[in-house]
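Exam revision sheet. Question 4 asks you to relate a sequence to its structure. Input first:
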Amino acid sequence: MDRIVIDQSRIRVDESIKAKMKPGSEFPRPLSWWQVTIPCWLDASESEGEFGRIVLTPNGRCADGRVVELAPVERRRDVKAAMQYLASRRFLDFSDAAVVE
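Answer key, structure tokens:
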């Protein structure tokens, strides 16, 4: 349990904003969008060989610039915090899209 894999084709967008979305801003989004959108303590990368799957892994970075080595317990804590972060997104539903591995 040290990473989250997101299948972008399963992300559900709230109907209230779906009509307002610009063409081309639907999912799957490029890796650069994920790298800007997620918190600093997570790294985003693309799953090897599979288009549209994003892998989020804890990196040990802090907001003040420090980098700490993560023990397995801390890595699991950060993965749980990342799942809570995804669940708190108001207009996006990651319940079927995010899998902890």
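Marking note for examiners. The beta strands are 4-7, 12-13, 42-46, 53-58, 92-93, 98-100.
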